[in-house]
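Our preliminary data section would be incomplete without showing what the modeling component actually yields. Below, a chain of 198 amino acids is followed by its predicted structure, encoded as tokens that our downstream tools consume directly.
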Amino acid sequence: MGGGLFWLNDKQWARIEPHLPTGLTGPDRDDDRRILSGIVHMLQSGARWRDCPREYGPYTTIYNRFNRWAKRGRWCAIFEALARPGKDAVVLSLDSTSIKAHRCASGGNWGEHNQAIGRSRGGRTTKIHALSDPLCRPVVLHLTPGQDADIAAAPDVLALAPPMSALLADKGSYRQILVTAGAVRRRRLWADGRSAWR
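Predicted structure:
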């Protein structure tokens, strides 16, 4: 195994393996652990699929697995299963960030999914709303066009939220929607200006 490559360790693989699809028709899949390690490596590096290191296998296999599973929603199912917290309710944080979309990212007439790309003063942008656990691991990710306000996406994000003991959010952006949704029982201000709702 070459240096600088990503490989799923035994603990990571033990968490992922039970959520992989089984009983599928067709030929047997190649070594899932090697292929998924290659997908993670390529997503982390941001390189072209064609530049995938040979240790992971043919780049076409890596790309085809990623692409087919994305179209069938298998990555979402795996992500949701792994992000599901344990039995205890935890403190979750809600915030968003805007990212600039590439100039050729929108305008296509193909595909059945809406693209969360909007126009704002900064150009074409997408906003990622994330609900994260105390270790900053995402529990819920929700995409909206860049010009949409945080307050508009809060109900959708919270509808997907697991049980929580408290919610940390920007007091300016999310306060009104949380108050009107009845999610606020007691508000506590933190020293850095964030609010905690219990």
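Residues 90-102+116-197 form one domain. The first strand starts at residue 90 and ends at 100. Preliminary results of this kind motivate Aim 1 of the renewal.
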